[in-house]
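Hi R.,

Here's the chain you asked about this morning:
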Amino acid sequence: MTSKGPLRAVEATSDADAATTLAALEQACNDPSLPAHLRPLLQQARDALRDADQAADLERSRYRAVFDAVPDPVSIISWDGTVLDVNKAGMAAYQRTREEIVGKPIEFLNPDLPRDHLRPVWETLLRGETYVIEVTNMRADGTRFPVEVHSAGFNDDDKIHIVAVARDLSSRHAAELRYRELMESIDKGIIVRDADGQIIHANPAAMRILGIENERALQDDLREEVWLTFDEHGREVPKADQPATYALRTGKTVESTVLGFYSRRTRQLKWLSVTCVPQFEAGGTAPSRVLSLFSDVTALKRDSTLFDRAQALAHIGGWEWDTGRNALYLTEEARRILGQHPDPATMDDLLACLREPDRRRLRAALDHAIAHGRSLNLDLQGWQANGHLFWIRMIGEAETGSPLSAHITGTLQDITERKQAEETLRVQARTDPLTGLLNRDAVLEELETRLSDPALQRAAVLYIDLDRFKIVNDVLGHAAGDRLLSAASRRIQRAIGSEGLIARFGGDEFLVICSTGDEPSRPERLADAILEAFSESFRMDGEEFSITASIGIAQSPIDGRRAQQLIQNADVAMYDSKRRGRNDWQSFTAELAEQQLQRLQLETHLRRAVINDEFTLVYQPLVQIDTGTAVGAEALIRWNNRLLGEMRPDHFISHAETTGDIVGIGGWVLREACKQMRRWLDRGLTLERVAVNVSYRQFLGEDLAEHVRAALAESGLPGHALELEFTERVLIEDAPDTVRTFAALRDMGVVLTIDDFGEGYSALNYLRRLPIHGLKLSQLFVQGVPDRKSDVAVCHAVTGIARSLGLSLVAEGIETERQRRFLLDIGVATGQGFLFSPGLAPDELQALYPPSRESDR
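And here is the predicted structure, written out as tokens:
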């Protein structure tokens, strides 16, 4: 696709064809040998074509004018995410020409998009809805800016494209940030109430002024019965006349009003100067909330002459510096805040109690203020004489005059508590509360910072996943699971020591970041140390559990230069380690990268396979082992993709279960098998039932009973003609839902069978409680009989279980006459396998087992 945008390549071709045709008509009109009666007709055709060409040019000009007139960036995007066109606003926003943008994937403009980001977009657009999302776009210089993208679908020459309008949110985000910072940092108390008078926010200053310890106590401490309100004359003010209530009722602003508030809880009286401002929603006629701003004027109310006392209450001191004499004057509160002995008498004394680089920052700000008559406003950190750390906000204004006699006057506010609270919040925001390790956001930030530093770029990520953790969590509960995670984190910390940065990445997954510049083999050595740390069992609630770890390793720069890429590749390596048997580590390799690419390619094609009609079903007969008579057939799926070719079911089915696509595929198999069984019955084929495999994801992710009922109704198939085969995993996922779903299916007459019995969890307790009709003996055990003793024992055991519970039993994978004879001897009557027949097309199966004459009649 060129920079001409959608349709423009076609238009260019059409223009060329039109120009050629027009030239030919012009030449024909001027041909003297042309019969006279044809010349007017050709002239009319020439004029009509010229007019049509001019009209088309006008339409294209209008399209481009309208497209470029939109003030927001607009992109036209193909189904696979390729940019087809972009307007002038987009070129200006991204600082790129149309030629640089068109033909690139949308990730070129938005490199932070998640994997498979187009999937929810297409799902929304195909429902006829508009998809809206807030993301970050990137300019040509690498800077980012937040946008709100509205995407809609449109049809262009029978192809569905996306038109995406991006609205720059930078101004809004900046305004919101400034508003939040103002709310949290202003020393005025601010309380926001909704239309019902309920408090929805109070800033730190409000909590401090009103003596409220934390947000949990906010609603309780500000209840009406806790406070009495008085005017300046000592008269009690009823609630209806209090400023916030009055502003909500009338919609009018209440200017600064001094009121007394007596707390029955603390038995203290505070005098506050209160201003209430009603706020309206767009188009609203009544206030939706009211903003109350207040300051504590108790000290001023008591005695306006006690200025120093008022400063102490507000933790604000005053200062003045006479630059000519280098004399510094501090109020009592300012001296208390600085805590120096003796008190600073010169600006050099004050600078001496500050830490670097704040000392240099204040000196530079003072010099600038003196030289240019400017103000200064700095947050500074220093030490009191007793060794306590303090934070101050120092504000000053320079008076104009000679530099030798200039004065700077200002305030000095103690913000130590606020800064300490901010630091506490910052630490909490970066810490996992369960383990005390760094959390996901913090470790991503740390890794990005490290990779951006050339001196630290040689680093490795160890992605750690606990094996069998879910079993412990399910058996002992989440509380025990949390204790296990805490114990596991401590073992990892002991194994790593000071050689790496450790984080809990989520669930039972941990990350370790370590340097490789001084020791290239450090990642592998640390991985071995972690595995060794997990070699000892865990003890929880009197039980002993063997929990191991699977570890994936990815190293920068060879496996990625970005944090997300490095973590993703370590994750891929971890899953390969888990696939190989767990309790081991695996480094990311080019082969794994290729496998990952193949999985992505497989996922893309698999998602469209049902729509593209790429699936077919074959049917393997279920037969009476002694006679070979068919009693049923199992539906087996086959996939033939135009690019990938014939795909093995065991390969793409497991992948579909991982991605969740098995739900849609399984629904298609269910409907198709029911329809085919109906056709066989109509043709007189004497089969009792058709068997369909059901994934545990279908069982958990949808109302399976309703889908089965719909498939039976659509095909007109009776319930007893359908058999559903489940794996043992279904039995232990959710017992109450399992019982309800199985009961609903059995009420329809559907035959319920546990497939590959003995391979998985062998949840015998659930067999006793669930309404199951039969079991299928796994070919894993059938293949070993009658020579392998362990397989013979399992076959005898499963046969005994089925017989004692009154369940039918079908043997899978029968390939030899010896296997058939063994199964008959132990009482298995029904089976399937290549000894009798492979999977057959519907017509082939009907030809192999033709209708009986009784059925024909």
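One quick note: Residues 1-13, 303-307 have pLDDT under 50 and may be disordered.

Cheers,
M.
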